[in-house]
Specification:
It contains 6 helices and no strands. It is an all-alpha fold. The protein is elongated, with a radius of gyration of 37 Å.
Length: about 200
Protein backbone atom coordinates (compact mmCIF):
# COMPACT_ATOMS: atom_id res chain seq x y z
CA UNK A 1 0.00 0.00 0.00
CA UNK A 2 1.18 3.41 -0.90
CA UNK A 3 1.63 6.07 1.69
CA UNK A 4 -0.48 9.07 1.23
CA UNK A 5 1.38 12.30 1.19
CA UNK A 6 -0.45 14.93 3.07
CA UNK A 7 -0.25 18.24 1.48
CA UNK A 8 -0.79 21.26 3.64
CA UNK A 9 -3.83 23.29 2.96
CA UNK A 10 -2.61 26.46 1.25
CA UNK A 11 -5.37 28.55 2.80
CA UNK A 12 -4.54 27.32 6.30
CA UNK A 13 -0.83 28.01 5.78
CA UNK A 14 -1.58 31.48 4.52
CA UNK A 15 -3.87 32.16 7.49
CA UNK A 16 -1.15 31.00 9.93
CA UNK A 17 1.41 33.25 8.26
CA UNK A 18 -0.94 36.23 8.42
CA UNK A 19 -1.65 35.53 12.08
CA UNK A 20 2.06 35.27 12.90
CA UNK A 21 2.77 38.49 10.98
CA UNK A 22 -0.02 40.32 12.81
CA UNK A 23 1.31 39.12 16.19
CA UNK A 24 4.84 40.25 15.27
CA UNK A 25 3.59 43.69 14.17
CA UNK A 26 1.53 44.05 17.35
CA UNK A 27 4.56 43.18 19.49
CA UNK A 28 6.73 45.69 17.62
CA UNK A 29 4.05 48.36 18.06
CA UNK A 30 3.90 47.73 21.83
CA UNK A 31 7.68 47.95 22.12
CA UNK A 32 7.69 51.18 20.15
CA UNK A 33 4.95 52.68 22.36
CA UNK A 34 6.87 51.77 25.52
CA UNK A 35 10.00 53.41 24.15
CA UNK A 36 8.00 56.51 23.24
CA UNK A 37 6.58 56.68 26.77
CA UNK A 38 10.07 56.40 28.24
CA UNK A 39 11.28 59.10 25.89
CA UNK A 40 8.50 61.48 26.86
CA UNK A 41 8.61 60.76 30.61
CA UNK A 42 12.23 60.48 31.47
CA UNK A 43 14.89 60.60 28.85
CA UNK A 44 13.70 63.72 27.08
CA UNK A 45 13.38 65.64 30.36
CA UNK A 46 16.79 64.42 31.50
CA UNK A 47 18.40 65.69 28.32
CA UNK A 48 16.69 69.06 28.77
CA UNK A 49 17.98 69.28 32.34
CA UNK A 50 21.48 68.35 31.24
CA UNK A 51 21.38 70.99 28.51
CA UNK A 52 20.22 73.61 31.01
CA UNK A 53 22.96 72.60 33.45
CA UNK A 54 25.62 72.79 30.78
CA UNK A 55 24.34 76.22 29.69
CA UNK A 56 24.46 77.42 33.30
CA UNK A 57 27.98 76.05 33.71
CA UNK A 58 29.14 77.76 30.53
CA UNK A 59 27.54 81.05 31.60
CA UNK A 60 29.14 80.85 35.03
CA UNK A 61 32.52 80.02 33.53
CA UNK A 62 32.20 82.91 31.07
CA UNK A 63 31.37 85.33 33.90
CA UNK A 64 34.33 84.20 36.00
CA UNK A 65 36.68 84.49 33.03
CA UNK A 66 35.33 87.97 32.27
CA UNK A 67 35.77 89.03 35.89
CA UNK A 68 39.34 87.70 35.94
CA UNK A 69 40.10 89.54 32.72
CA UNK A 70 38.73 92.79 34.15
CA UNK A 71 40.76 92.37 37.34
CA UNK A 72 43.92 91.73 35.31
CA UNK A 73 43.26 94.80 33.18
CA UNK A 74 42.73 96.91 36.29
CA UNK A 75 45.96 95.63 37.82
CA UNK A 76 47.88 96.33 34.62
CA UNK A 77 46.47 99.82 34.28
CA UNK A 78 47.19 100.51 37.95
CA UNK A 79 50.78 99.31 37.57
CA UNK A 80 51.24 101.47 34.49
CA UNK A 81 49.81 104.51 36.24
CA UNK A 82 46.85 104.84 33.89
CA UNK A 83 44.38 104.52 36.71
CA UNK A 84 41.81 107.28 36.43
CA UNK A 85 41.04 108.82 39.77
CA UNK A 86 37.62 110.16 40.49
CA UNK A 87 37.17 113.05 42.84
CA UNK A 88 34.36 113.11 45.34
CA UNK A 89 32.99 115.95 47.39
CA UNK A 90 31.12 115.85 50.65
CA UNK A 91 29.94 118.70 52.81
CA UNK A 92 29.37 118.11 56.47
CA UNK A 93 30.59 115.45 58.84
CA UNK A 94 27.78 112.99 58.14
CA UNK A 95 28.38 113.06 54.40
CA UNK A 96 32.14 112.70 54.90
CA UNK A 97 31.65 109.65 57.09
CA UNK A 98 29.22 108.13 54.59
CA UNK A 99 31.66 108.79 51.75
CA UNK A 100 34.56 107.23 53.64
CA UNK A 101 32.50 104.15 54.46
CA UNK A 102 31.43 103.81 50.84
CA UNK A 103 34.95 104.20 49.46
CA UNK A 104 36.62 101.87 51.95
CA UNK A 105 33.96 99.18 51.84
CA UNK A 106 34.75 96.43 49.39
CA UNK A 107 31.97 94.70 47.53
CA UNK A 108 33.02 91.28 48.84
CA UNK A 109 32.85 92.43 52.45
CA UNK A 110 29.51 94.09 51.87
CA UNK A 111 28.20 90.94 50.14
CA UNK A 112 29.20 88.82 53.12
CA UNK A 113 27.09 91.10 55.31
CA UNK A 114 23.99 90.59 53.17
CA UNK A 115 21.43 88.68 55.16
CA UNK A 116 20.00 85.73 53.24
CA UNK A 117 17.42 84.73 55.85
CA UNK A 118 16.05 87.88 57.50
CA UNK A 119 12.74 86.18 58.26
CA UNK A 120 14.49 84.16 60.97
CA UNK A 121 15.28 87.29 62.95
CA UNK A 122 11.97 89.13 62.55
CA UNK A 123 10.28 87.88 65.72
CA UNK A 124 13.18 88.63 68.07
CA UNK A 125 13.74 92.01 66.46
CA UNK A 126 10.04 92.86 66.82
CA UNK A 127 10.06 91.96 70.52
CA UNK A 128 13.10 94.21 71.05
CA UNK A 129 11.39 96.98 69.08
CA UNK A 130 8.24 96.60 71.16
CA UNK A 131 10.22 96.81 74.41
CA UNK A 132 11.82 100.05 73.26
CA UNK A 133 8.79 101.77 71.75
CA UNK A 134 5.96 100.73 74.07
CA UNK A 135 7.02 103.00 76.98
CA UNK A 136 7.33 105.92 74.56
CA UNK A 137 3.85 105.26 73.18
CA UNK A 138 2.39 104.99 76.69
CA UNK A 139 3.80 108.41 77.53
CA UNK A 140 2.56 109.88 74.26
CA UNK A 141 -0.93 108.30 74.35
CA UNK A 142 -1.80 107.51 77.99
CA UNK A 143 -5.50 106.83 77.36
CA UNK A 144 -5.03 104.12 74.70
CA UNK A 145 -5.82 100.45 75.19
CA UNK A 146 -3.14 97.80 74.84
CA UNK A 147 -4.57 96.66 71.48
CA UNK A 148 -4.29 100.21 70.16
CA UNK A 149 -0.63 100.31 71.17
CA UNK A 150 -0.15 97.01 69.36
CA UNK A 151 -1.77 98.40 66.20
CA UNK A 152 0.48 101.45 66.22
CA UNK A 153 3.54 99.30 66.86
CA UNK A 154 2.73 96.92 64.00
CA UNK A 155 2.19 99.82 61.58
CA UNK A 156 5.44 101.54 62.53
CA UNK A 157 7.30 98.20 62.54
CA UNK A 158 6.62 97.69 58.84
CA UNK A 159 8.64 100.81 57.99
CA UNK A 160 11.13 100.71 60.85
CA UNK A 161 14.84 100.41 60.05
CA UNK A 162 15.14 97.84 62.86
CA UNK A 163 12.96 95.45 60.84
CA UNK A 164 15.26 92.86 59.20
CA UNK A 165 12.97 92.73 56.19
CA UNK A 166 13.67 96.43 55.52
CA UNK A 167 17.43 95.94 55.58
CA UNK A 168 19.42 94.80 52.58
CA UNK A 169 18.96 91.11 52.09
CA UNK A 170 19.18 88.60 49.30
CA UNK A 171 17.17 85.57 48.44
CA UNK A 172 18.41 82.23 49.72
CA UNK A 173 18.52 81.12 46.07
CA UNK A 174 20.88 83.92 45.02
CA UNK A 175 24.33 82.83 44.01
CA UNK A 176 27.41 84.60 45.34
CA UNK A 177 27.88 86.29 41.96
CA UNK A 178 24.34 87.71 42.00
CA UNK A 179 24.81 89.15 45.48
CA UNK A 180 28.20 90.62 44.56
CA UNK A 181 26.76 92.20 41.43
CA UNK A 182 23.86 93.75 43.36
CA UNK A 183 26.20 95.11 46.05
CA UNK A 184 28.65 96.51 43.49
CA UNK A 185 25.87 98.34 41.68
CA UNK A 186 24.66 99.75 45.00
CA UNK A 187 28.15 100.96 45.88
CA UNK A 188 28.53 102.57 42.45
CA UNK A 189 25.20 104.37 42.84
CA UNK A 190 26.14 105.71 46.26
CA UNK A 191 29.51 106.91 44.93
CA UNK A 192 27.80 108.64 42.00
CA UNK A 193 25.98 110.89 44.44
CA UNK A 194 29.32 112.09 45.84
CA UNK A 195 31.10 112.55 42.50
CA UNK A 196 32.38 116.00 41.82
CA UNK A 197 30.72 117.52 38.80
CA UNK A 198 33.20 118.91 36.31
CA UNK A 199 32.41 122.30 34.77
CA UNK A 200 31.66 122.25 31.06
Amino acid sequence: MKKKTIRPNPKAVEAKEKKAEAARLKKEQEIKEEEDKKWVCGVKEDTKREEERSLRREEKQRKTEERKRQEEEEEKSFEMGDKKTDTYTATGIDECIALMETVTTTAARKASEVDRHPERRVRAAYLRYEEEKLPELRKEFPSFKYSQYKNILSKTWKKAPENPMNQSHGSYRDSREDVLQRVESGLEESLESFKEKKPM
